[in-house]
Amino acid sequence: MTLIESAPPKQGQPADPVWREVEPGFWVASADGMFLGTIEQHSERRFFARNSTRTYVGEWSSLELARDAVLTARVH
User: Fold this and answer.
1) Where are the alpha helices (DSSP H) in 1-76?
2) What is the C-alpha R_g of the chain?
3) Which of 9, 8, 17 is nearest to 49 (CA)?
4) In total, how many domains does the chain have?
5) For residue 11, what pLDDT is reported?
6) Is there a domain that residue 11 lies in?
7) Which domain does 36 fall in, by range?
8) Closest Cα partner for 40 from 32, 48, 52?
């Protein structure tokens, strides 16, 4: 499992997202204990992103682009 964490949030600021690779090719994002979305890797350069309601956000050519898409597509 891969764990990517950021520094703890400063007082009054939302926490940075934490990404966990829960199984090979499947990442889950959360922040402040809230589910943010997932990324599924379908091939070397195909990453499918879904938001917190599991709505399809899009297909991306890199994990980094897919992560950005999930975080941009946050449902408030």
Assistant:
1) 63-72
2) 12
3) 17
4) 1
5) 59
6) no
7) 16-72
8) 48
- Is residue 10 in a domain? no
Give tens-digit pLDDT for 18-66: 999 999 999 999 999 999 999 999 999 999 999 999 999 999 999 999 9
Q: Say if CB 31 and CB 39 are below 8 A apart.
A: no
Q: Within 10 Å of residue 31's Cβ, how many Cβ atoms?
A: 16
Distance between CA atoms of 39 and 56, rounded to whole angstroms?
A: 10
Per-residue pLDDT, 3:
61
- What is the spatial distance between Cα 36 and Cα 61, in angstroms, rounded to a whole number? 20
Write out the two tokens for 32: 């402040």
Is residue 7 assigned to a domain? no
CA distance 20 to 38: 10
